[in-house]
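seq as requested:
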Amino acid sequence: MPNTPARTAVNPLRVAIIGAGIMGMSIAWRVAQAGAAVALFDRHRAGSGATHAAAGMLAAGLEGEPGEEDLHPLCDASQRLWPDFARELAAESGLELGYRDEGTLSVALSRDDATRLRHDLARLTALGCDLAWADSRELRRREPYLNPAVVGGLISPRDHQVDNRMVARALIEVLGRRGVPVHQDVPVALATAGGRAVGVRTGDRLHEADVVVLAAGAWSAEVDGVPPLARPPVRPCKGQMMALGMDPAAPLLNHVVWGPGIYLVPRRDGRLILGATVEEKGFDATLTAGGMLSLLHAAWRALPGIEELPVLESWVGFRPRARDDAPLLGPTAALDGLIHASGHHRNGILLTPATADLVARCILDGTMPELGRRYSPDRFARPAAKEAS
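C-alpha coordinates:
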Protein backbone atom coordinates (compact mmCIF):
# COMPACT_ATOMS: atom_id res chain seq x y z
CA MET A 1 0.00 0.00 0.00
CA PRO A 2 1.19 3.55 -0.65
CA ASN A 3 2.94 5.25 2.24
CA THR A 4 0.84 8.43 2.36
CA PRO A 5 1.66 11.28 4.76
CA ALA A 6 -0.70 12.17 7.56
CA ARG A 7 -3.35 14.72 6.58
CA THR A 8 -3.94 17.96 8.43
CA ALA A 9 -6.08 21.00 7.74
CA VAL A 10 -2.91 23.05 7.26
CA ASN A 11 -1.10 20.49 5.12
CA PRO A 12 -3.73 18.46 3.27
CA LEU A 13 -2.80 15.36 1.30
CA ARG A 14 -1.78 16.37 -2.23
CA VAL A 15 -3.26 14.14 -4.93
CA ALA A 16 -2.57 14.39 -8.65
CA ILE A 17 -4.80 12.43 -11.02
CA ILE A 18 -3.72 11.73 -14.59
CA GLY A 19 -6.91 11.41 -16.61
CA ALA A 20 -10.03 13.58 -16.40
CA GLY A 21 -12.55 11.03 -17.57
CA ILE A 22 -15.39 9.73 -15.43
CA MET A 23 -12.97 7.68 -13.29
CA GLY A 24 -10.48 10.45 -12.63
CA MET A 25 -13.19 13.03 -11.97
CA SER A 26 -15.17 10.76 -9.64
CA ILE A 27 -12.07 9.85 -7.64
CA ALA A 28 -11.17 13.55 -7.44
CA TRP A 29 -14.66 14.37 -6.18
CA ARG A 30 -14.44 11.77 -3.43
CA VAL A 31 -10.98 12.76 -2.18
CA ALA A 32 -11.87 16.46 -2.38
CA GLN A 33 -14.91 15.73 -0.19
CA ALA A 34 -12.47 14.26 2.34
CA GLY A 35 -10.36 17.42 2.38
CA ALA A 36 -7.47 16.43 0.13
CA ALA A 37 -5.87 18.95 -2.23
CA VAL A 38 -6.47 17.33 -5.61
CA ALA A 39 -5.73 18.34 -9.19
CA LEU A 40 -6.53 16.60 -12.50
CA PHE A 41 -4.45 16.50 -15.68
CA ASP A 42 -5.51 15.37 -19.14
CA ARG A 43 -3.99 15.43 -22.60
CA HIS A 44 -7.49 16.08 -23.99
CA ARG A 45 -10.64 17.81 -22.74
CA ALA A 46 -12.22 16.57 -19.52
CA GLY A 47 -14.78 13.85 -20.20
CA SER A 48 -14.00 13.69 -23.91
CA GLY A 49 -12.70 10.13 -24.21
CA ALA A 50 -14.48 6.87 -23.40
CA THR A 51 -16.69 8.83 -20.99
CA HIS A 52 -18.14 10.78 -23.93
CA ALA A 53 -18.32 7.77 -26.23
CA ALA A 54 -20.11 5.35 -23.89
CA ALA A 55 -23.79 4.42 -23.90
CA GLY A 56 -24.27 4.67 -20.13
CA MET A 57 -25.69 1.20 -19.50
CA LEU A 58 -25.58 -0.02 -15.91
CA ALA A 59 -25.85 -3.69 -16.76
CA ALA A 60 -24.26 -5.88 -14.10
CA GLY A 61 -26.84 -8.51 -15.00
CA LEU A 62 -27.16 -8.93 -18.74
CA GLU A 63 -23.66 -7.77 -19.66
CA GLY A 64 -21.85 -10.42 -17.62
CA GLU A 65 -20.07 -12.68 -20.10
CA PRO A 66 -18.89 -16.28 -19.60
CA GLY A 67 -15.52 -16.35 -17.86
CA GLU A 68 -16.16 -13.07 -16.02
CA GLU A 69 -17.63 -14.57 -12.87
CA ASP A 70 -14.85 -13.06 -10.72
CA LEU A 71 -15.80 -9.59 -11.95
CA HIS A 72 -19.47 -9.90 -11.03
CA PRO A 73 -19.17 -9.00 -7.30
CA LEU A 74 -17.56 -5.66 -8.20
CA CYS A 75 -20.09 -4.94 -10.95
CA ASP A 76 -23.00 -5.87 -8.71
CA ALA A 77 -21.70 -3.76 -5.82
CA SER A 78 -21.23 -0.75 -8.09
CA GLN A 79 -24.68 -1.16 -9.62
CA ARG A 80 -26.18 -1.04 -6.13
CA LEU A 81 -24.24 2.18 -5.43
CA TRP A 82 -25.45 3.98 -8.55
CA PRO A 83 -28.85 5.28 -7.32
CA ASP A 84 -27.33 7.04 -4.30
CA PHE A 85 -24.29 8.15 -6.31
CA ALA A 86 -26.59 9.70 -8.92
CA ARG A 87 -28.76 11.44 -6.33
CA GLU A 88 -25.72 12.85 -4.52
CA LEU A 89 -24.06 14.08 -7.71
CA ALA A 90 -27.29 15.61 -9.01
CA ALA A 91 -27.92 17.39 -5.69
CA GLU A 92 -24.39 18.82 -5.44
CA SER A 93 -24.13 19.83 -9.09
CA GLY A 94 -27.71 21.01 -9.56
CA LEU A 95 -27.76 19.13 -12.89
CA GLU A 96 -29.77 16.23 -14.25
CA LEU A 97 -27.98 12.96 -14.99
CA GLY A 98 -30.52 11.19 -17.15
CA TYR A 99 -30.77 8.25 -14.73
CA ARG A 100 -33.48 5.82 -15.88
CA ASP A 101 -34.70 2.70 -14.10
CA GLU A 102 -37.13 1.07 -16.56
CA GLY A 103 -34.86 -1.96 -16.72
CA THR A 104 -33.33 -3.78 -19.67
CA LEU A 105 -34.62 -6.37 -22.13
CA SER A 106 -32.60 -8.91 -24.10
CA VAL A 107 -34.51 -10.29 -27.07
CA ALA A 108 -34.20 -13.43 -29.18
CA LEU A 109 -35.07 -13.35 -32.88
CA SER A 110 -34.62 -17.06 -33.53
CA ARG A 111 -34.67 -20.38 -31.72
CA ASP A 112 -30.88 -20.36 -31.58
CA ASP A 113 -30.99 -16.90 -29.97
CA ALA A 114 -33.52 -18.17 -27.45
CA THR A 115 -31.37 -21.18 -26.57
CA ARG A 116 -28.40 -18.91 -25.96
CA LEU A 117 -30.47 -16.57 -23.77
CA ARG A 118 -31.81 -19.48 -21.71
CA HIS A 119 -28.21 -20.56 -21.07
CA ASP A 120 -27.44 -16.96 -20.05
CA LEU A 121 -30.44 -17.01 -17.73
CA ALA A 122 -29.20 -20.13 -15.92
CA ARG A 123 -25.61 -18.87 -15.71
CA LEU A 124 -26.44 -15.36 -14.54
CA THR A 125 -29.15 -16.29 -12.03
CA ALA A 126 -26.61 -18.67 -10.46
CA LEU A 127 -24.51 -15.56 -9.80
CA GLY A 128 -27.46 -13.85 -8.13
CA CYS A 129 -28.66 -11.68 -11.00
CA ASP A 130 -32.33 -10.72 -10.95
CA LEU A 131 -33.50 -11.97 -14.35
CA ALA A 132 -36.70 -13.52 -15.68
CA TRP A 133 -37.77 -15.15 -18.93
CA ALA A 134 -40.49 -13.41 -20.93
CA ASP A 135 -42.42 -14.67 -23.93
CA SER A 136 -42.87 -12.66 -27.10
CA ARG A 137 -46.25 -11.32 -26.00
CA GLU A 138 -44.83 -9.86 -22.78
CA LEU A 139 -41.84 -8.33 -24.56
CA ARG A 140 -44.02 -6.65 -27.16
CA ARG A 141 -46.42 -5.47 -24.48
CA ARG A 142 -43.49 -3.59 -22.95
CA GLU A 143 -42.05 -2.52 -26.31
CA PRO A 144 -44.73 -2.63 -29.04
CA TYR A 145 -42.35 -1.71 -31.88
CA LEU A 146 -40.04 -4.68 -31.44
CA ASN A 147 -39.79 -7.00 -34.42
CA PRO A 148 -42.89 -9.25 -34.48
CA ALA A 149 -40.49 -12.16 -35.03
CA VAL A 150 -39.24 -11.86 -31.42
CA VAL A 151 -39.60 -15.33 -29.88
CA GLY A 152 -38.82 -14.47 -26.26
CA GLY A 153 -36.11 -13.01 -24.11
CA LEU A 154 -34.95 -11.82 -20.72
CA ILE A 155 -36.10 -9.03 -18.44
CA SER A 156 -33.52 -7.48 -16.10
CA PRO A 157 -35.27 -4.94 -13.84
CA ARG A 158 -32.06 -3.84 -12.05
CA ASP A 159 -30.08 -3.09 -15.23
CA HIS A 160 -30.61 0.66 -15.57
CA GLN A 161 -28.96 3.47 -17.54
CA VAL A 162 -27.53 6.95 -17.08
CA ASP A 163 -26.60 9.64 -19.59
CA ASN A 164 -22.82 9.47 -19.38
CA ARG A 165 -22.33 12.87 -21.03
CA MET A 166 -24.60 14.50 -18.47
CA VAL A 167 -22.67 12.76 -15.68
CA ALA A 168 -19.43 14.21 -17.06
CA ARG A 169 -20.91 17.71 -17.07
CA ALA A 170 -22.10 17.26 -13.49
CA LEU A 171 -18.68 16.08 -12.33
CA ILE A 172 -16.99 19.05 -14.01
CA GLU A 173 -19.48 21.30 -12.21
CA VAL A 174 -18.91 19.84 -8.73
CA LEU A 175 -15.14 19.91 -9.15
CA GLY A 176 -15.37 23.56 -10.14
CA ARG A 177 -17.51 24.35 -7.11
CA ARG A 178 -14.92 22.67 -4.87
CA GLY A 179 -12.06 24.57 -6.45
CA VAL A 180 -10.40 21.50 -7.94
CA PRO A 181 -8.13 22.53 -10.83
CA VAL A 182 -8.55 20.56 -14.06
CA HIS A 183 -5.59 21.01 -16.41
CA GLN A 184 -6.87 20.13 -19.89
CA ASP A 185 -5.25 19.85 -23.34
CA VAL A 186 -1.78 19.70 -21.82
CA PRO A 187 1.12 17.25 -22.25
CA VAL A 188 1.14 15.07 -19.15
CA ALA A 189 3.98 12.98 -17.73
CA LEU A 190 4.49 11.20 -14.44
CA ALA A 191 7.31 12.64 -12.32
CA THR A 192 9.40 10.24 -10.23
CA ALA A 193 12.32 10.59 -7.84
CA GLY A 194 13.99 8.19 -5.44
CA GLY A 195 11.87 5.25 -6.59
CA ARG A 196 8.48 6.85 -6.05
CA ALA A 197 5.95 9.01 -7.87
CA VAL A 198 6.31 12.62 -6.78
CA GLY A 199 3.88 14.45 -9.02
CA VAL A 200 2.97 15.30 -12.59
CA ARG A 201 4.85 17.28 -15.22
CA THR A 202 3.07 19.45 -17.77
CA GLY A 203 5.80 20.67 -20.04
CA ASP A 204 8.51 22.23 -17.88
CA ARG A 205 6.28 22.60 -14.81
CA LEU A 206 6.28 20.11 -11.94
CA HIS A 207 3.07 19.72 -9.94
CA GLU A 208 4.18 18.01 -6.75
CA ALA A 209 1.95 15.41 -5.12
CA ASP A 210 2.04 12.89 -2.30
CA VAL A 211 0.00 10.41 -4.36
CA VAL A 212 -0.47 10.11 -8.13
CA VAL A 213 -3.42 8.24 -9.64
CA LEU A 214 -3.11 6.88 -13.17
CA ALA A 215 -6.65 6.96 -14.57
CA ALA A 216 -6.05 7.78 -18.22
CA GLY A 217 -8.27 5.05 -19.65
CA ALA A 218 -7.06 3.57 -22.92
CA TRP A 219 -4.10 5.97 -22.87
CA SER A 220 -2.83 4.79 -19.47
CA ALA A 221 -0.03 2.73 -21.01
CA GLU A 222 1.01 5.71 -23.15
CA VAL A 223 1.68 8.19 -20.34
CA ASP A 224 5.27 9.40 -20.35
CA GLY A 225 7.44 8.90 -17.30
CA VAL A 226 5.83 5.69 -16.05
CA PRO A 227 8.58 3.09 -15.46
CA PRO A 228 8.18 -0.08 -17.56
CA LEU A 229 7.39 -2.32 -14.57
CA ALA A 230 4.68 0.09 -13.40
CA ARG A 231 3.14 0.56 -16.85
CA PRO A 232 -0.38 -0.96 -16.94
CA PRO A 233 -1.08 -3.65 -19.55
CA VAL A 234 -4.02 -1.68 -20.96
CA ARG A 235 -4.76 -1.35 -24.67
CA PRO A 236 -7.47 0.44 -26.65
CA CYS A 237 -10.43 -1.56 -27.94
CA LYS A 238 -12.18 0.39 -30.69
CA GLY A 239 -15.95 0.75 -30.76
CA GLN A 240 -18.02 2.45 -33.45
CA MET A 241 -21.39 3.86 -32.38
CA MET A 242 -24.17 6.05 -33.70
CA ALA A 243 -27.25 7.95 -32.56
CA LEU A 244 -30.61 8.17 -34.29
CA GLY A 245 -33.36 10.68 -33.59
CA MET A 246 -36.74 9.55 -32.22
CA ASP A 247 -39.73 11.76 -31.42
CA PRO A 248 -39.30 12.39 -27.66
CA ALA A 249 -43.10 12.56 -27.27
CA ALA A 250 -43.61 9.20 -29.01
CA PRO A 251 -40.36 7.22 -28.85
CA LEU A 252 -39.97 3.89 -30.61
CA LEU A 253 -38.27 2.48 -27.52
CA ASN A 254 -38.38 3.09 -23.77
CA HIS A 255 -36.20 0.29 -22.36
CA VAL A 256 -32.59 -0.47 -23.06
CA VAL A 257 -32.78 -3.43 -25.45
CA TRP A 258 -30.12 -5.99 -26.30
CA GLY A 259 -30.54 -7.91 -29.54
CA PRO A 260 -28.22 -10.20 -31.48
CA GLY A 261 -25.11 -8.13 -32.16
CA ILE A 262 -26.56 -4.83 -30.91
CA TYR A 263 -27.74 -2.77 -27.98
CA LEU A 264 -30.17 0.13 -28.24
CA VAL A 265 -30.27 2.81 -25.55
CA PRO A 266 -33.10 5.39 -25.60
CA ARG A 267 -32.60 8.86 -24.13
CA ARG A 268 -35.37 11.12 -22.88
CA ASP A 269 -34.44 13.77 -25.45
CA GLY A 270 -35.25 11.30 -28.25
CA ARG A 271 -31.73 10.14 -29.04
CA LEU A 272 -31.43 6.41 -29.64
CA ILE A 273 -27.88 5.12 -29.13
CA LEU A 274 -26.78 2.11 -31.19
CA GLY A 275 -23.64 0.26 -30.19
CA ALA A 276 -21.10 -0.99 -30.53
CA THR A 277 -18.48 -2.70 -32.63
CA VAL A 278 -15.56 -4.45 -30.90
CA GLU A 279 -12.36 -4.00 -32.87
CA GLU A 280 -8.69 -4.53 -32.03
CA LYS A 281 -7.44 -1.65 -34.19
CA GLY A 282 -5.37 0.37 -31.73
CA PHE A 283 -6.16 4.08 -31.75
CA ASP A 284 -7.70 3.99 -35.23
CA ALA A 285 -10.53 6.54 -35.06
CA THR A 286 -11.87 5.80 -38.57
CA LEU A 287 -15.61 5.40 -38.97
CA THR A 288 -16.18 2.64 -41.50
CA ALA A 289 -19.06 1.71 -43.77
CA GLY A 290 -18.87 -1.85 -42.47
CA GLY A 291 -19.11 -0.69 -38.86
CA MET A 292 -22.13 1.50 -39.54
CA LEU A 293 -23.78 -1.22 -41.63
CA SER A 294 -23.39 -3.82 -38.90
CA LEU A 295 -24.96 -1.51 -36.32
CA LEU A 296 -27.87 -0.47 -38.51
CA HIS A 297 -28.63 -3.96 -39.76
CA ALA A 298 -28.60 -5.52 -36.27
CA ALA A 299 -30.68 -2.65 -34.87
CA TRP A 300 -33.18 -2.88 -37.75
CA ARG A 301 -33.65 -6.59 -37.11
CA ALA A 302 -34.64 -5.87 -33.50
CA LEU A 303 -36.53 -2.62 -34.10
CA PRO A 304 -37.59 -2.29 -37.76
CA GLY A 305 -39.01 1.21 -37.33
CA ILE A 306 -35.52 2.72 -37.11
CA GLU A 307 -35.36 2.87 -40.92
CA GLU A 308 -37.41 6.08 -40.80
CA LEU A 309 -35.23 7.80 -38.19
CA PRO A 310 -32.61 10.44 -38.97
CA VAL A 311 -28.95 9.78 -38.19
CA LEU A 312 -27.84 12.39 -35.66
CA GLU A 313 -24.27 11.43 -34.89
CA SER A 314 -21.66 8.71 -35.30
CA TRP A 315 -18.41 8.34 -33.39
CA VAL A 316 -15.56 6.10 -32.28
CA GLY A 317 -14.55 5.38 -28.71
CA PHE A 318 -11.69 3.44 -27.17
CA ARG A 319 -12.42 1.07 -24.32
CA PRO A 320 -9.46 0.61 -21.93
CA ARG A 321 -8.96 -3.16 -22.05
CA ALA A 322 -6.65 -5.13 -19.77
CA ARG A 323 -5.42 -8.65 -20.49
CA ASP A 324 -8.19 -10.30 -18.48
CA ASP A 325 -10.92 -7.68 -19.18
CA ALA A 326 -10.96 -6.67 -15.49
CA PRO A 327 -9.88 -3.29 -14.08
CA LEU A 328 -6.56 -2.42 -12.48
CA LEU A 329 -7.22 -0.86 -9.07
CA GLY A 330 -4.80 0.19 -6.37
CA PRO A 331 -1.05 0.56 -5.80
CA THR A 332 1.76 -1.30 -7.51
CA ALA A 333 4.89 -2.63 -5.87
CA ALA A 334 6.79 -1.39 -8.93
CA LEU A 335 6.52 2.27 -7.88
CA ASP A 336 5.61 3.71 -4.52
CA GLY A 337 3.14 6.58 -4.53
CA LEU A 338 1.40 5.47 -7.75
CA ILE A 339 -2.16 4.13 -7.74
CA HIS A 340 -3.87 2.63 -10.77
CA ALA A 341 -7.51 3.11 -11.79
CA SER A 342 -7.84 1.93 -15.38
CA GLY A 343 -8.64 -1.07 -17.58
CA HIS A 344 -12.43 -0.98 -17.04
CA HIS A 345 -13.11 -2.08 -20.65
CA ARG A 346 -16.85 -1.97 -21.40
CA ASN A 347 -17.88 -1.52 -17.72
CA GLY A 348 -16.47 1.94 -17.10
CA ILE A 349 -19.71 3.79 -16.45
CA LEU A 350 -21.12 0.91 -14.38
CA LEU A 351 -17.99 0.64 -12.21
CA THR A 352 -17.62 4.36 -11.52
CA PRO A 353 -19.10 4.56 -7.99
CA ALA A 354 -17.27 1.48 -6.71
CA THR A 355 -13.98 2.54 -8.31
CA ALA A 356 -14.26 6.04 -6.84
CA ASP A 357 -14.93 4.70 -3.35
CA LEU A 358 -12.25 1.98 -3.45
CA VAL A 359 -9.50 4.16 -4.89
CA ALA A 360 -10.37 7.10 -2.63
CA ARG A 361 -10.11 4.76 0.38
CA CYS A 362 -6.74 3.55 -0.87
CA ILE A 363 -5.51 7.13 -1.31
CA LEU A 364 -6.76 8.43 2.01
CA ASP A 365 -6.18 5.44 4.30
CA GLY A 366 -3.52 3.45 2.49
CA THR A 367 -5.78 0.39 2.50
CA MET A 368 -7.62 -1.29 -0.34
CA PRO A 369 -10.95 -2.81 0.79
CA GLU A 370 -11.39 -6.52 0.24
CA LEU A 371 -13.75 -5.97 -2.70
CA GLY A 372 -10.96 -4.35 -4.73
CA ARG A 373 -7.95 -6.48 -3.81
CA ARG A 374 -8.35 -9.10 -6.52
CA TYR A 375 -7.96 -6.32 -9.12
CA SER A 376 -4.46 -5.31 -8.04
CA PRO A 377 -2.31 -4.25 -11.02
CA ASP A 378 0.40 -6.52 -9.64
CA ARG A 379 -1.63 -9.62 -10.52
CA PHE A 380 0.02 -9.63 -13.95
CA ALA A 381 3.52 -9.69 -12.46
CA ARG A 382 2.99 -12.72 -10.20
CA PRO A 383 3.50 -15.56 -12.74
CA ALA A 384 6.80 -14.03 -13.90
CA ALA A 385 7.90 -13.61 -10.29
CA LYS A 386 7.15 -17.28 -9.58
CA GLU A 387 9.07 -18.43 -12.65
CA ALA A 388 12.06 -16.29 -11.64
CA SER A 389 12.13 -17.93 -8.21
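Residues 72-93 form the longest helix (22 residues).
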